[in-house]
Amino acid sequence: MTASIVFVVVLTLANILQAVTGFAGAPLSMPICIALQGINDAKASITLIFLLSGAVVALQNIRVINPRKLGTMLFFMGIGLVPGLWLFERLPVKSLMILYGIIVILIGMVKLISRNPAEMPKPLKLLAIILAGMMQGMFTSGGPFLALYATAELKDKQEFRATVSSVWAILNIFLCSKMYGKGMYTPNAIRLFLLSVIPVFGAIAVGNRIAKRIRPETFLRLVYVLLILSGGILLLNALG
User: Fold this and answer.
1) The dihedral sign for the CA sequence 54, 78, 25, 123
2) d(CA 222, CA 160)
3) Which long-range contacts (CB under 8 A, 24 or more apart) does 125-128 make?
4) CA distances in angstroms from 51 to 66, 83, 199, listed in the order given
């Protein structure tokens, strides 16, 4: 029971950050939740929770969603999603998480100290969202790479939050259906989801309040700090 309570607390805190920025909730919470409940139950319940929270934030801000950028994100992440699911079942997950964590930390540090952090060549932006799809398929943690693309293309923080949240809502429908087909929605995974629903709605309300008060420059810096933090947690979890 204690593990379940800690699981819910971690997801609640992660969803506050997710509501503020539109990403980072899954990569920050996933390593701890895997340690508490195992990879299958954690991945299944977390994917369903972030489908719900993404849908809520997107619907609350539906008027500022950028449909063209949303379509671009979904298309290129979709290209990476299927091979990501395939790789997860065939490659050593630990090695992939180490590489992923190192890359995300380095990118976050470069962006944090750069004078023009949002600027990226177009080929790198497209590569970032394809890799986001792959990481979403492997670890339900595509947020760091998607954030790189989104900060370059979506300058308004509300547009950023709404559009990125829409991506999670839509892609996670596909992921949840795949997990259901594989029998990953065990009674324990469903129980964890149900325990988390009400606290997560509270987390979204808190995150929305913070998002309205945060300055655009502070918002961007928070995004890059969360990139570094999420990469660090992924790396520590892989090495632990």
Assistant:
1) negative
2) 13
3) 125/149, 125/152, 125/153, 126/76
4) 19, 21, 15
The two three-digit tokens of residue 154, written as one number: 């979506």
Tokens of 51: 């489908």
Q: Please count the other Cβ atoms lying within 10 Å of the Cβ belonging to residue 47.
A: 27
- Among 232, 3, 38, 222, smallest CA distance to 117 is for 222
DSSP 8-state code for residue 52: H
With contact defined as beta carbons under 8 Å apart, do 133 and 77 qualify? yes
Which residue, chain included where needed, has tokens 């949840």? 176
Distance CA 42, CA 16 (A): 18
Q: Which token pair is 222?
A: 């928070």
Spatial distance between the Cα atoms of 230 and 141, rounded to a whole number of angstroms: 9
- Mean pLDDT per 10-residue interval, the chain, length 240 residues: 86 88 78 81 90 92 94 92 82 75 78 67 86 82 81 86 91 90 93 93 91 79 78 75
Q: Could you tell me which residues come within 8 angstroms of residue 57 by beta carbon, excluding any fewer than 6 positions away?
A: 18, 19, 22, 161, 162, 165, 204, 207, 208
Burial 170-191 (b: 16+ CB within 10 A, else e): bbbebbbeebeeeebbeebbee
